[in-house]
Amino acid sequence: MAPRPWPLLAVVFASLVAIAGLPAAFAATPVPAFTITDIDGNVLSSAGLRGQVVVLDFSAIWCPPCSAVEDAFVEMHPTYAGQGVVFLSVYLPPLNEPENLEQRRAEKGIQWHMAPDNDGLHVRYGVYGLPHIFVIDRNGFLAHDWTSALGLPPTPESVKAEIGPAIDRALQGGGASLLEVTALSIPALLILAAFLSLFSPCSFPVLPAFMAYYLNLDAKGAKVSTKVAAARGFVASLGIVAVYGAIALVLFAAGIAAQRTVVFISPVVGFLLILFGILTLLPLQYHFLTRPFVALKRTIAAKVGGRWTPGTAAKLFAFGAGYGAAGFACVAPPFIGAVLNASALGAPQQGMVGLLIYVGIVIALMVAIVIALHLAGDRALQKVRAWSAAMKYVTAAAFLVAGAYLILFFYLAYRG
User: Fold this and answer.
1) Were 139 and a residue from 90, 179, 316, 339 both cysteine, which residue would form a disulfide, CB within 3.0 to 4.6 Å?
2) What's the rounded Cα separation, in Å, for the pair 347 and 343?
3) C-beta of residue 358 within 8 angstroms of C-beta of residue 196
4) Least confident interval from 1-5, 71-75, 277-281, 390-394
5) Where are the beta strands (DSSP E) in 39-112?
6) Which residues of 98-108 are buried (b: 16+ CB within 10 A; e: fewer)?
7) Domain boundaries for CATH 3.40.30.10 within the chain
8) DSSP string for residues in 254-312
9) What dotted CATH number matches 35-172?
């Protein structure tokens, strides 16, 4: 019979992701990052406008309904300009050269930012009809998405009735709670990844080998102290951290490069999580994923074998690195999802907090495992083997819950 702690861990895993993620599904979604220069030479960016509510209006001089939006903004802008609200009208080609926009400003009495769309910003925002207005809260989240109804041209009054309340809601502080939810959801996925780094169907087959190796170390010499055992666990955990640290650096770079397609990240990661959840329940083996690392290890060993004999610390570190590499097939979805989202959404500080938590959990778990081996020996190995049958269900449940929340998040935010 499997030990009782595993059902509890299943609840912890599922609840952790659900609590952190599901509220975000009903809240808002980050908007694509942008940098644009207005006709006065001011460089405006989504990052630079954080802390202010942004009314992003996609318009065109040749668009008759857009004139109603401009008339509404002429009345609204003086009211909101002193409340931390930035109005930005982005004009699509043709006729969006600076001289055309200058003339438009003089005709309408426009006092807010006007900029030509010269790099396809409207495509990144999914704008295929004009006018189209996005209200963005202080933290860069979408607060309101409005476009005129087909066959029903807007009037200045209808625009004010629609956009005014949306701006008021964004000013009333909804953004603070959204930031807290996002800050929690990214570390939550990394907490999940930390547990899966040591206990997953991908890496679990390596754990008995690690235990046997550790027990063999003690068998060769005098019984070590608990402090030494803890130090060995710490060194092994550094191997895991090194592997995932290198992967995180690549993901941060990829996330920053992917900012222009950020709206598609959540459903893709959600699909991968669900796919891995289903695969976890199937009788599949993942040993083939470790073969490239084994080959690399043999190559390196062949080159340095006669010149350097690794000590216990080096062997433990290498074993930890191999263990982390073996588990990446299962850890990849939450790890990639968290780090890529953190960097792509322009919130690297959230990713760094999550990574610090990840490192702490991995170190604590590995130290605890080694101390348990030190104190219990073969009995600890037998208990872990007994737990292995339940592990795949724990992992699958966590993946399915996390994947469902990410897809639901995207659907609710962009369905209309």
Assistant:
1) 179
2) 6
3) no
4) 1-5
5) 43-45, 53-59, 85-91
6) eebbeebbeee
7) 35-172
8) HHHHTGGGGGGHHHHHHHHHHHHHHHHHS----GGGGHHHHHHHHHHHHHHTTT----H
9) 3.40.30.10
The residues, ordered by sequence, that sit 6+ positions from 321 with a Cβ below 8 Å of its Cβ are 239, 240, 242, 243
For 245-287, what is each residue's pLDDT tens digit?
888 888 777 766 655 454 555 676 677 778 777 876 776 655 5
- For residues 141 and 175, is the Cβ–Cβ distance under 8 A? yes
Determine the Cα angle at 319 with ends 314 and 324, to 5°.
125
Of the candidates 200, 230, 203, which has an alpha carbon nearest to the alpha carbon of residue 214? 230
| Residue 332 to residues 218, 271, 272, 316, 343, Cα–Cα distance (Å) | 33, 13, 9, 23, 16
DSSP string, 119-138: S-HHHHTT--SSSEEEEE-T
Express the helix, strand and coil content of the chain in percent, nearest 5 each: 70, 10, 20
CA distance 103 to 82: 26
Locate tokens 């960016």: which residue? Answer: 45
- 16 within 8 A of 192, measured Cβ to Cβ: yes
322 and 241 in contact (C-beta within 8 Å)?
Answer: no
Helix (H, G, I), strand (E, B) or coil at 58: strand
Cα separation, 226 vs 91, whole angstroms: 68
Give yes or no for a contact between 124 and 260, defined as CB atoms under 8 angstroms apart: yes
pTM: 0.51
Q: Report yes or no: 61 and 99 within 8 Å, Cβ to Cβ.
A: no
